[in-house]
Batch of 3 targets.
Target 1
Amino acid sequence: MLIIVILVVVAVAAAYYYPSLRPKKKLLIDFWYESSGHWPQSEDQAMLYKAQLERTGLISVNLHSADYASLRKMKDADSVPVWVGAWTQDYSDPDDYVLLMHSERGSFLHTHYMNPEMDRLIDQARVASDPAVRNRLYEQIQNIMVQDAPLVPLWQGAGWAVTKPDVKGVVIDITTYLRYWLIESPRETLIVGTTDSVVASLDVAEGYGTFEELAILNSGAGLVYIKPGSVAGPEDFMPGLATGWSSSSDGLTWTFDLRRGVKFSDGTEFDANAVKYSFDRSMSLYLPDSAQAAIGYRDIIDSVEVTSKYQVVFHLKIPFGPFLSLMAYPGSFIVNPKLAPMEKAVTYVDGDARASNPNDLGPYLLYSWVRKAGKDYEMRFDANTNYWGMADGYPKTKHIVVKFYPDPTALALAIKAGDVDVAWRQLASSDIRNFQTDPNVKVWQGPGALIQYIVFHEKIPPFDNPKVRQAIAAALNRTELVDTVFLGQAAPLYSMIPNGMAFHQDAYKTLGDANITLTVSILQGLGYG
C-alpha cells in the first residue's frame, strides 16, 4: 500500500514540475457519416478525416455510421454533433448553396447557426440584379463563412456513368440529373443500376432526395427545362409545359403561356388550373423537410393567378433573380390534381405504383415499384403515350428498369457482369479508373455541382465555439483527400459556393490545408493540450 502511495505522489509531482508529462486534454469528436452508398466513398472519406484530425495530437475522433435515411432522421432530431453532408443544386445560383446552409431561415441542416449580418447580406444578394453588387455581397458572405465556420467545404465532384458500349445519349451536366428519355439503346428495355433510393416519396411536395428528384424529372414535367448539356446560364432555358414566358420590369411578375393539347395519364387536359393547384398545394403543405420549405417558396412567391385557360401569372414577393431556374427544378413540377390530394403528401403504396406517384406529364409513367424488407428493390418506367414530346421522338427507349444496389461494389459488379446497361450513382473512384481502360464498357463524364462538407451542430458544445470549428477546418488536407480517396477525380473546395459558379472565391484557403500549426495554436488557446 505504501509503495502505491509513493508512486502516486511521484507521478503527481512529476506532472507538476514537468508539464510535458501531463496527459493532454484532447478535443473529442463523435463524427458521423452515411453508410448506404448515397454519397461517394463515405467511409473512406471519414477514415481519412479522422487520420488528418488526429495528426494534430490534440484531437481524438470516434467514427459512427448510419444509412442515409437514419442519419437524416437523427440530424433532424438534433442528435448528431458533427457529420459529413452533401449538396447538389436545386437551381443554378449561389443563393441555392448559401440560403439553405447559412441563413436562419435555411434550417435544412439543423445546424442552429445564426448570424443577423449573414442573413442581411443573403437577403440583399437574393434580390440584387447588378452582377457587381452581387459579387461584393457574396465576397462578404464568404468572408463570414470562414469567420464563423458553421460548415467546412471539402470537395466538389464530377458526374460519372458507366454503360454498355452500345448505349448512346447519356448527358451529364451541372444539373446532376440523368435524363432517361434521352438515352438510346438497341434494346426496348434499358436497365439502370444505382445505390440511391427513395428517402421520403415521389411527391414534389415532399421528395427532396437525389433519386426522388430524378424520378420526378423523368415522370413529371415543369414549365421550363434547362437545356441538356448546358451550364444553366440565362440563355439555357427551353420550353416545357410553357411555350413562352415574360417578366415585368421590376421582376415581380412572371407570365407563362402554356402548351395546349397536353393530357394527364387519365386523359384529363392539362391547363392553368393544374399549375395553380400544384403550387398552392406545395406551399400550403410546406412540409418541414420539403424543397419548398427549405428553399423558401413562401418567401419568394406571393400568389399564382390563372388569367386564362392557357396562361398563368406568378406574383412574387421579391424580384428573385434565378426564378426561371427555380421553375426548372423538379420541386416546381406539376402534379395531377386527381392523384395529389391538397391535404397530404402522396407516399409509397405497396403494389400500386400509380397511387404512389402523382407525376404523369413527363416522358415516362411509373409502372411498378417493388420494395423488399422496406428497401427499394426495383422500379419500372414505361413510355408515356400521352407525352407531348412523342412527336419529337422522345423518349428514345420504351422501358426503363431501375435496380437498386446496396453499395458501390455491388453496382460495379453488376455493370461488369452485364446485369445493367447503365451504372449511375455511386461508383468508387478505383472502379471508375479501372472502367476507363475496359473495352467492354463506356465511361461518361460531365461537370458536377455535388459538394461535400462537414456540418457542426452549434447547440452541442464545444462546437458552439467558432474557434473550435476553425481549428478543425485548418487541420484538413483537401489535396490528400482528392488524390487518395478520389484518385484525382474530384476537386478541392474552399467555399460553399462551388468552383466555376458565379461569385465563387477560395475563402477557406485563408485557414490553409493541413495547417496543424494553426490548429494547435487555436486549441491550446482554448485549453487543449
Target 2
Amino acid sequence: MSELKDLKKQIAVITENLLSAKNEVQKLNLEINSIQQKLISSDFRLNDFSNSIPFSIFEIFENGEIIFLNSLSKEILNIKDNIIKGENIFKYLPSQVANDVKHNIELAVNSKSKVSSVFKLNGKYFKVLTFPRFDEITNEKSIIILSEDITLQIESETELNFKTILLSKVYEEAPDGFMIFEFESDKLISCNKKLKEMFELSELSYISDINNFIRSARVKSLSETDKEIIINQVKIYGFFEDEVEYKTYKGNNFWASYSIKLLNLENEEVFLIRLSDISEIKKINKQLFLDKQKRTLQIEQSPLGYIEWNEKFEVVEWNKSSEKIFGYTKHEVIGKSAYFLVEKKLKVVLDEYWNDIKSGKIIGEQKVYENLTNSGALIKVNWFSTGLYDTNGKFTGIGCLIENITEQLKNEAEINLQLQEKELLLSEVHHRVKNNLAIISGLLFMQSESVDDPKIKQILTESQSRIKSMAIIHDQLYKSENFSEINIQDYLKELTRKIASSYSSTDKKIDIDIESSNFALPISQALTIGLIINELVINSYKYAFANTSKGKIKIRFNKKDKYFFSVKDNGVGYPLAEKMEDVSSLGINLIRILVQQLKGEVKFINENGAVCNISF
C-alpha cells in the first residue's frame, strides 16, 4: 500500500511539473508573438525611415539578386514595380555601370571594408559607398550600397573652377583694354595685355610708369571739374561712358570708347575701366553720309523689294520693286504701319516678330509669309529681315529685302509632282525588271530540272544564281526611297542568304560570316560586285569543302582610301600553279573581267584556304 501511495505522489508531482511546463511554454509563445510583432513593426518603421532619407539604399547578394531597395533607389533605376525582391539589379543598369558596381563589390568583399567611388548614371553623378554585411541571426552575407546624388555639387565645383579660370583669361586676353584703379588713391593697380598694345607700351612696363603715361595720354586734357563730374556720376549711377582721342607712347593717335564702373574688390572699392579702339568706326562714320546716298541709289535700282521701318514700325523706305510686288506707291505707304500688308488674323504674329527683332532675339532671319497686295490678292513673299542700329548700338528699326515667290512656289510644286511621278515610274521599272529576272531565273530552274547531264545542270544553276544576284538589287531599289544607290551591307546579307538556300540540299554545314561597313554604292558598281561575290561564294561551295562536312566562308567589305573586299574560305585552296595569275577557269576569268570594269585590282591567294582580295 505504501508503494502505491508513493507512486501516486510521484504522478502528482509529475502532473504538477507538466502543468507548470505548459504554463511556461504558453508564456514563451506569448513572448515570441510579442517579439514577432515588434520585429514587424520595426521593419515597417525601418522601411519608412529608409524611404525618407535623402540617399538611396541597395541591399543585394554578391550575384546582384535584390534583397531590399528604398524608394529613392527605385526612382534612380526607374523601377515602377513594387515586387522586385529576387530580381537581379544588373539588368536595370547600363553595362559599364554594372561592371563598375561588380568591381566595387569584389573589392569590398575581398577587403572586408567599404569601397567609395563616383558613378555617372542617366546624366547624374552619384557618390557610392559599397560594403559587405553579415547577418548574425540568419548567417546571410549581403552587400549594402549607399548612394547620394552629388550632381549639383560637382556641377557647382566645375562651374566655379571654370568661371575662375575663364574670368582670369577673359581679363588678360580680352579684345578690349582693361585697367583697375583704386577708388580712394586713384592709383593704377592692374592693366591687361591689350591695354599695353593699344598705347604701344612694352609688355615689361612697370605699373607706375603706365599710370603716369595714361594720365597724360589724352589729346584733349581733362579738367579737374570734368574729373569731378565723372566721379560723381560713377558714384550715383555706378558707371560712366564716353569717347576719347588718345596719343600712344610712339605718338600715334587713336579713338577709344571707354566705360568706367565702380566695383567692390575684396572689400575695397575700385574703378574698372574698359577701352575699345573705335578708330576704324570713326573713319567709317565719316564715310556713312556718302554711303547712304549710294545705298539709296542701289536700293531704288535693286530687283528685290526693300522696305525699311522705323522704331515705331512705320514705313520709312519703299523702293520701286516693292511698288511692283504690292501695288502701293511710295507716297501711299510712307508713315504707314506694317499691318496693311497682312490679314487681321496675322497681326499678333507680326507683333511677336517685331518684338523679337527689336529685343535682339532675332538678328537676321529669312521667312516666307503670306501678304496682301493693294488689290486684295494673297501672295507668297520671301522676307529677309534684320534689325537696324545707330553708331551707339541703339535700335532704329528693321530693314527687309523681299521677293515675290508665288510663281516660284507654284513651279516648284509642279516640279515636285513631276518628280514624284518619275520616281513612281522608276520604282515600277525596278519592280518589273526584278519580276522579269525572276521569270528568267524560273525558266533556267525549270530547264535545269529537265536535263540529266550534271554539267549542264550545274551551268544552268550558276546562271540562275547570277541572275538572282542582279534581281536582289532591283528588289532593294524597288523597296528603297533612293533609286541610285544600294546599301552594301543589306545586299551582301540577302545575296549570301539566297546562295546558301540554293545549296541547302547538300549535307554540308557551311557558315558565312559577313564583316562590312554600312555604306551605299551606285547601282552599276553594286551589280558588278554582286556578280563577283556570287562567283567566289559559289566556287567555295563547289570546290573548297570536298573532303569535309563543314566549312566557313568570310566576306569582308570596307572603305578607306579605296573600296576593299575579300572572300576567304578555310577549304582546300585554289589549284596549284607556278603563279596564281596562271590559274584559269570560267568563274575566275569572269571575275577578272568584272574587276576590270571596276578599274580595280584582284589577287588570288592560298592562305589556309582560298582568298580573293579586290580593291577599286
Target 3
Amino acid sequence: MDKRTLLALFLVIILFMILQNYVFRPRQAPAAQEQPPTAQTARPEAAAAPESLSLQTAVADTLFLPAESVETIRLSNQDNFTVSFSTLGATITSIEMKKYTWADKVKPVDLVPEGGALGGMKLIGTVAETDLGRVNFQHRVVPDSNYVEFFLGEASAPVIVKRYTLDDKFGIVMDVTVNHPQPLNGLAYDFSDGIADSEKATKFKQNEHKFILYSEHDATRHSLAKMKKSLPGGEVRLFGWAALRTKYFSIAIAERAENPQIRNFQTSINEKTGNPAVVLDTWEKIPSQQWSQSLLIYAGPADYEILQSYGLKRMELMAERGAAWLRWLANIIAWFLKFLHRYIPNFGVVIIIFSIILKIILHPLTHKSMDASLKMQRIQPQVQAIQQKYKNDAKTMQLELSKLYKETGASPFSGCLPLLLQMPILFSLYTVLRFTIDMRNAAFVGWLKDLSEPDPYLILPILMGVFMILQSLMMRPPAAALEQMDEKQKAMQQSTKMMTWVMPIMMFWIFKGLPSGLVLYYTVFNILSVAQQYYLQKHFKTKETK
C-alpha cells in the first residue's frame, strides 16, 4: 500500500468511530430523573402493603400455604427450550435452551439467574401495593400440553388468573386477568432479577449487555456501562417492548395488543449478576376492578430472523446489527454467511470463501486501480518537470497535473477507492461476526475455538500485519524511478517507507482485540491482495515489454 492508501485506511477508521459515536449513535433511553410526571400516566410512589391487605377476604385459602406445598411445573416445546414455573408468585424460575450450551458443550444455557424468578406481579392499589411474589398460587395444567394456568381464589371464579403458553419458537405468552373486589390503579410486572450470563468471557460485558426500549416506534439502547451512570426509567408512551440483552441472548417483554397498557418502566442492575433488569407497570389515574392484558415474553437468542418472524413491533431491532446507516449491509452479509453455512459446517471456511468471493467481485476495480497506480510511477519524471516549471504558480501547476493525469489515465488516489469500498463491509462484518448467534462457540482450526472472540495467541493479527508489510513493499517504486526523483519526492518516499512499518503495527493493536473471525477475513483478504498485486505487476510489466 502507498502512503495515500495507508492514510485513507487510518482516516476511514477514525471517521467511522466519529460517525458511530457522535453522528449515527442510537437514541439513548431517558434517565429516570429526566421524566417529568404527568397527570395522566405518571405513577406516584405507593406504600408497600402487607401481602394479605387487598386479598385477605378473597383468597384466604391460597395465600398462606406452607412452603412444602410450593410446586414447580416444567413445560417444553419440541426444539427450543424448557421453562420451569413456580407456584410461588406464579413466576418463571428457569428457561433452559435446548440448542445452546456453555463452552463445555454440556451445561445448557439458562436465561434466568440462579435462584431468581421472572414475571412476578404487584397489585397497585389506590393507597398501597400488594406484592404477589410470595403468594402461593393454585394451578392447573394438562399433561404434555404447552400451557399452565395459575390462579388465586375459587377455581370457578378466580380473582387473579395468570396463564403461560409456550409457542413453537422462543416465546412465552402471559395472559393476565384480574377481577378484584377493590379498585386498582394498575399492575406491575417484575423482571428485576434480570437476565443471566451465558458466556465465560465477560471482558466486554459493559458495552455488550444492554437494556433496549421500543416505544413511539423507535428503539432506544442503554449499555450496562451507561446504566451504571444513570438508570433509565419513568413514563413511556406507545410502549412496544422492553428487552434485557446479553451478547447473544435476550429476554423481552412485548405488548401483543395494538393499544399498549404499559405506562411506566424502571430499570435496575442485578447485584448478583451485574446484568440489566426492569420492572414495568400499567398505572392509570382512574382505578378499575377489572384488568386484562396479554404479553409476549421472548426468551432466546437475539437472532434477527427469529425475532423478525414474530412480526411484532419490529422486535428484530433487538438483534445487534451495528449503526443504523449500515444495518442493511450487515443483514445482507449475515444472510449470505448463513446461506454458505448450510452447506459448509465450518464457519472459518465460510469466512475464507466469503473473502475469496468478495475479492473476485472487487477484482475489476482493483485491476483498474493498480493500472492507474503503476502509471503514476511511470509519469513521475513528467510530474517532477511540471512541479519544477510551475513551482511559483500553484493554480497552473494543478491544471497541468490534472491534464497529465487525464491524458495518461493515471490517478494520485488510485489506491484508495477499493479500500474505501471495503471499509463498510469490514465494519458490518465486525458486527455480524461479533454478535450473530451462529458464531457463538464456532471453532475453526486448532487454537481458534471461538471465532467471535479475539485470537488468544495473536497468530492471525501477526500474520495480517506481515502481509500488510509485504503488500506495502511491493508497491514501492523501482530503484531507477527513485534515482530520478528530486529531494522533495525522496522525502515523501521516506515518509511512505516509515508508514510501511507504522501502519501494520497500528492495525495489529486494533485487530488483536477484535473477533478472530474478522481478523481471519482481513488476513485472507490481504493474502489474496498480495497474490493479486504480484500477478498484476507481472502482467503490466509483460504488457509494457511487448
